[in-house]
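Cont'd.
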Amino acid sequence: MTRPDTPFSTPSNSASPSPDAPAEPADQPADNSENDSVTGDDTNDTDQDGGNRRDGEYEHLVPLLAEFADLETGDPRRDGLRDELVKGYLPVAQHIARRFSNRGEPMDDLVQVATVGLINAVDRFRPDRGSDFFSFAVPTISGEVRRHFRDQGWSMRVPRRLKDLHVSINSTVSELSHELGRAPRPSEIAAKLDVPVADVLEGLEAAQAYRSSSLDEMLTSEDGGATLGDLLGEADAQLERVEYQQALEPLLGELPDRERTIVMLRFFGNLTQTQIADRVGISQMHVSRLLAQTLVKLRHRLEAE
Amino acid sequence: MPVASPGPSVVELRISARPTLISTVRTVASDLAGRADFDLDAISDLRMAVDEACTTLVRLTTENDTLTCVFTVDTESIGVSVSTRPGWLGAKVSTESFGWRVLQTLADEVEAHEGDPEGPDSIGIAMVKRLGIVQ
């Protein structure tokens, strides 16, 4: 709610376009790559960490875990024991929170979310199941932090059901685009997912509330480079025929590569969003959002001239 | 006797000419396109085109004026006409701007109009987005 519908609604800010213009695109690619690497290696690292610390620092907590797990739900000793355990293992939560620290979320929030994960882990851990606390707590805590990122990716409150639907729609769209050689229609997506068209429409509308860089949208394609260059050449030639080229060209030059490429291919290369998505290696929905955002930016900059 | 076609459906929105209300028009546009089963590219194109057209006109009028957006939904196309009163003498839609290029790319047909349909003192943009070719 606090965030205006980013892709389009900025005209009201037209008085101060420049401050936020470079900021947004800059964190998108960074965000993506970090999501990738952090998600990729945090399990290993935290496991090792857990391993190192297991022997010393947390040794005294192990019997407390067993004791805590054995107490009945209403037992008055539970609260104190729970506090002690959470405090004792707090460095683990802080450590995991730090692994996610450069993704644009405030550190305090991350520690808080990780601590919630830790509390859940303490509450749910069953020593009699044979595994040790770390191999249970680490995934529980990082799961909580990941969920936080997933939910934070939405610029307004969207029900869980729609978020899940958004994920399945997104993957169905790319499947169908390849099969059909064009963007699918809502009816085709609905048929493929075996859900009512109304649900797909709802899911697509929810997608508008989704913040652009997300875990499911990595920049994947490296091999499209040559074709991209060729296409950009043609698009550049088109640009030369435009009367306001002089005003526009420097602004296009200021855009991050990916945004510039997308705008050029769409408006001067006449490719569809689906074709662009294919070449740039992101989803059609992502192209749609980037295009809309970039148009707003360009509009502001052109006005400021 | 063939059953008479009910003809195109019309949806008309009148908003105060303020940037914050454009998102409502945009949402209506993509809802209509989605329900007409346009493909996702076309839905997104129409959404952006409506945004561009409304933004252009909001800037050519005053915020106490009204922006009228008429959607005409037919089986194969959606027509959008956005119009308002010019905010000052000589305010008119530029067809040489980047925004116009954007509209030309996003819509299948686009034209700027003056004096129509709201009487002589009106400016507007009319465009058509077609369903696209089904293979």
